[in-house]
Amino acid sequence: MTGRWAPSPTGEFHLGNLRTGLLAWLFARSRQANFLWRFEDLDGAVRPEFYDLQLRDFQSIGLDWDGPVVRQSERLKLYKDALEELKRRGLTYRCWCTRREILEATAAPHAQLPEGAYSGTCRKLTAKQISDHERSGRNPALRLVTEGQTVQLQDRQLGAFSGAVDDFVLCRGDSTPSYNLVVVIDDAEMGVTEVVRGDDLLPSTPRQVYLSELLGIQSPTYAHVPLVLNESGNRLAKRDGAVTLSDRLMLGESELDVLNHLLSSLAIPNIGSFQELHEVVQDFEPRNLPTSAWVFDL
Ligand code: GLU
Predict the structure, then answer these.
(1) Where are the domains of the chain?
(2) On the chain, which terminus has fewer CB atoms closer than 10 Å, C or N?
(3) pLDDT tens-place string over residues 57-68
(4) What is the per-residue pLDDT for 262?
């Protein structure tokens, strides 16, 4: 068994990120599984200082990982090969739609499609339209050809989930491979068998399962966990106040206090020292985790 944590180095972690990371770590370590770290750093908002800061914060609250840290930015060849394979199999097409056009032409209402699902406009272009687009000089995105298939999956925390798959982006117009492509390739290549992550990613999971099947990859199991909310019920963000580890330390809390705060939010008893984390791991039982979002009270 192998678990992983795949943050984007686009900022300092807040307690919500650390709590999801702690959960991914607990799921893996409680079954003596490997636990890998992958930086999802293909995003334009990545900043170099956050790689080390994120690793340090994770370690400061007593957590660890195995093996070398993986960076997606160093693995572009892997993604390119997968794209070439899909192209060769005739499973891709070019799309020149702008974000606005996509929103305006939202796919026909379909309860099971993810928000912002693509309606397939560029799949039906005439030769003339294609050559006009080519002359425009704008670089097209590459999309996957799908038939609105419905994918069912069994989430360890949330139970059965079913969702339809749209013609999602595989590679953006600026040549960056998309999240939904790289997550599938990376988890397979790294031997990840269990994905634990925030439940905001659940609607995209059918896309990933579908792509795995196309590529002959066995999907990992999934456990989606609730995000942390602020007092107004929105996803916790840095602007909400003292929400990063360094903010909490400035307030006079210790790293152990912060870990205990996170453990309390998971209905796990507090510990007196980091050495006791191994007991937390031994007693960890996903069935006992709270099923609703944690509202962070500042
Ligand atoms: N990089 C994503 C994030 O930071 C996580 C993606 C995943 O776990 O699949 O939210």
Answers:
(1) 2-74+226-295, 77-177
(2) C
(3) 999 999 999 999
(4) 97
Torsion of CA 276, 279, 281, 283, to 10 degrees: -150
Q: Determine whether the shortest distance from the Cβ of 197 to ligand 1 is under 6 A.
A: yes
pLDDT digits (tens, 9 = 90+) for 224-239: 999 999 999 999 998 9
For a substitution probing ligand 1, which of 201, 227, 236 has the most ligand atoms within 8 Å of its CB? 201
For 156-251, where are the E strands, in sequence order? 159-164, 169-171, 194-198, 221-225, 228-229
Report the pLDDT averaged over residues 187-214.
97
The CB of 38 under 6 Å from ligand 1? The reply is: no
CATH homologous superfamily, domain 77-177? Glutamyl-tRNA Synthetase; Domain 3 (3.90.800.10)
Residues 282-293 have pLDDT tens digits of 999 999 999 888
Our separate counts of H helices and E strands in the chain read 10, 12
- Does ligand 1 lie within 6 Å of residue 182's CB atom? no
